[in-house]
Amino acid sequence: MKFFVYLDNGTDGLAVETDFGFSGLLKTDAGYPGDLLTLIRKGPSAMKSAAEALSKGQIVDVAAVTALPPVAHPEKIVCVGLNYADHSAESGFEQPKYPTLFSRFNSSLIGHGAPIVRPQCSEQLDYEGELVAIIGKRARHVSEADALNYVAGYSIFNDASIRDYQFKSPQWTAGKNFDDSGAFGPYFVTADALPKGCLGLKLKTLLNGVVVQEAMIDDMVFSTAQIVSICSEFMTLEPGDVIVTGTPSGVGLARKPQLFMKDGDVCEVMIDQLGTLSNPIKDAQAA
User: Fold this and answer.
1) Are residues 151 and 233 in the same domain?
2) Phi then psi for 31, rounded to 5 degrees?
3) Are residues 145 and 191 in the same domain?
4) Cβ distance 116 to 280 under 8 Å?
5) In this structure, is residue 72 part of a structural domain?
6) Are 69 and 184 a contacting pair, CB within 8 Å?
């Protein structure tokens, strides 16, 4: 199942993909099954019932409404740095033997189509196309072999980074949490509709139509299953928590000459079977 979270004339809506496109219901419509986070917390049967209800709703033109992040207010957003060996190498880091974990916050999230904003204080706005795993049930001390059973589904992320602020200190929090820098979406695809752990799928990032990143999900150093298991060793993962699994090589910081995003650019992140996350770039003054 593929879900789409949107806003139509100020009213929240939820749609599901059918053979005829997307069908959905607004929050004010009879039969609206609830927001996606609530459905994830209720489990697969609730999502299946919701899909049936939504399929009987109105046709939704996804290009004519405002796309929202699939989960706008997750309790936790856990990001993984240096999770592709070629990206670690281009960044000048020795490949870590343990995942490099950092946090994003809800205030940085935007949806598909919304502008990624380059702040007035920096010109070093970089792209990072990534796979997102969304937790479906509470996970604590979960084995790697069982970890994917705790993933409800997947989406796409552009972990846009302000590089000079990222490296002002050993911790990356500042550079990874500027407002309007975490593009997320456009769809949430349930895990049962995809290969396990999304293995076999290809990720591409395009800047102004030119491919700047390309890798297989299989190339991750730490798989989705390993990341979920490792995180569950030290904290309880809750339904709706978002795990952003890392970016491959090709980032603008490592290029010669460096390639940073600027006002007027368009950045797209594509993953097989998950869709395309597209966002224009705007300077803060213009935005």
Assistant:
1) yes
2) 90, -5
3) yes
4) yes
5) no
6) yes
| DSSP string over 101-148 | EEEE-GGGEE-TTSPEEEPTT-S-EE--EEEEEEE-S-BSS--TTTGG
Q: List strand residue ranges (DSSP E) for the chain, in order.
A: 2-8, 11-18, 21-26, 58-60, 66-67, 77-81, 100-104, 109-110, 116-118, 125-126, 129-135, 151-159, 161-162, 182-184, 187-190, 202-207, 210-216, 242-244, 266-271, 275-283
Residue segments in the chain with a per-residue pLDDT below the cut of 50: none
If DSSP codes are grouped into helix, strand and coil, which group holds residue 150? helix
Residue 39's domain comprises 2-67
- Choose among 9, 17, 10, 40: nearest CA to 186: 17
Of 203, 215, 220, whose CA–CA distance to 276 is shortest?
A: 203
- Supply 232's token pair: 């569950």
Residues 99 and 217 in one domain: yes
Q: What is the CATH number of the domain that holds 147?
A: 3.90.850.10
Q: Which tokens go with 72?
A: 């706008």
Q: Is the pTM of this model over 0.85?
A: yes
Give the tens place of pLDDT for each residue, 235-246.
999 999 999 999
Question: Which amino acid type is present at position 65?
Answer: V
**pLDDT tens profile 68-109:** 999 989 999 999 999 998 888 888 888 889 999 999 999 999
Between strands 129-135 and 182-184, the pairing is: unpaired
